[in-house]
Amino acid sequence: MIILGLTGSIGMGKSTTAQMFRDEGVPVHDSDETVHRLYAGKAVPLIDAAFPGTVVDGVVDRTRLAAAVLNNPPELKRLEAIIHPLVRAESENFLDTHRKAGTPVVVLDIPLLFETHGEDRVHKIVVVSASPDIQRERVLSRPNMTEDKFASILAKQLPDAEKRRRADYVVDTGAGLEPARAAVQAILKDLGKATALGTSR
Ligand SMILES: CC(C)(COP(=O)(O)OP(=O)(O)OC[C@H]1O[C@@H](n2cnc3c(N)ncnc32)[C@H](O)[C@@H]1O)[C@@H](O)C(=O)NCCC(=O)NCCS
Ligand SMILES: Nc1ncnc2c1ncn2[C@@H]1O[C@H](COP(=O)(O)OP(=O)(O)OP(=O)(O)O)[C@@H](O)[C@H]1O
Predict the structure, then answer these.
(1) Helix or strand or coil: residue 156?
(2) CB distance 9 to 135 below 8 Å
(3) Which end of the chain is more exposed for a tag (fewer CB within 10 A), N or C?
(4) DSSP assignment string, 99-118
(5) Is 11 annotated as contributing to ligand binding?
(6) Tens-digit pLDDT profile for residues 137-156
(7) How far is the CA of 10 from the centre of ligand 2 (A)?
(8) Ligand 2, closest atom to CA 173?
(9) Is the pTM higher than 0.90?
């Protein structure tokens, strides 16, 4: 089974590109979505104990949690130490299920793939990218997003240029949906060739 790591900085188009892999029949495990699910389930008592006041009506309030951690590196580290192992365990389950099912290619959508040294968990890395202007416009148009929050998240991420340098494939999401879809299809075609040559681990 070929494990593709899909990553990219905030607002670069990971979720949109992940959906394009799904459209091609490739199962995707989404780390952000897993975090959000954990915040309504398994992680609630842990977050409630570690960050009092961030759980509202039995669910983690992400705006409150962001306010507690985003400008406070030790607090963010503490949060990551709780959340990342839970996300990791869920993604390992996903991989086991697909190995057993004989699925040929899967995608792990991991925003912090490089930052958490996840390179060794995947065979090939796809980086989604767009110009800084497009990224900024996309991110600032989201509800609950501010200049400060954007700057704070960006500062915690490996720069886009470095991500591109380390990528096996880059999907440019700045030119529209169809070119990005064509790039996804080209990657899968290329991987098909790699498998035929026996180069997958
Ligand atoms: C800080 C939180 C509460 C903000 O929630 P919010 O709903 O506003 O944003 P969301 O979760 O959709 O994340 C949006 C984007 O922010 C970036 N981001 C999120 N967490 C981090 C982080 N720890 N370091 C750097 N960038 C991050 C990613 O690009 C992500 O795609 C939330 O992101 C969180 O709990 N982060 C800690 C867990 C984590 O590290 N998640 C990242 C992937 S496992
Ligand atoms: N190929 C594309 N062409 C045009 N617009 C795109 C493309 N890819 C993504 N977008 C747009 O960019 C915005 C951000 O995309 P998306 O939510 O997929 O980013 P993301 O990388 O998952 O973000 P985050 O890291 O913050 O979770 C969305 O409004 C989406 O419609």
Answers:
(1) coil
(2) yes
(3) C
(4) HHHT-SEEEEE-TTTTTTT-
(5) yes
(6) 999 999 989 999 999 999 99
(7) 9
(8) 1
(9) yes
- Measured in degrees and rounded to the nearest 5, phi and psi for residue 102 equal 75, 25
The residue contributing the CA closest to ligand 2 atom 12 is 13
For residue 45, report the distance from its CA to the centre of ligand 2, in Å: 32
What are the tokens at 200? 């997958």
Q: Tell me the one-letter amino acid at 64.
A: R
Within the chain, residue ranges assigned H as helices are 14-23, 31-38, 44-50, 62-69, 73-101, 132-140, 147-155, 160-166, 177-196
With a 6 Å cutoff on the Cβ, whether 77 touches ligand 1 is: no
| Residue 37 burial (10 A CB sphere; 0-12, 13-18, 19+) | middle
Largest CA distance in the chain: 55
The ipTM (two decimal places) reads: 0.92
Cβ(130) – ligand 2 distance below 6 Å: no
Contact 12, 130 (CB under 8 A): yes
- For residue range 105-123, list pLDDT tens digits in order: 999 999 999 998 999 999 9
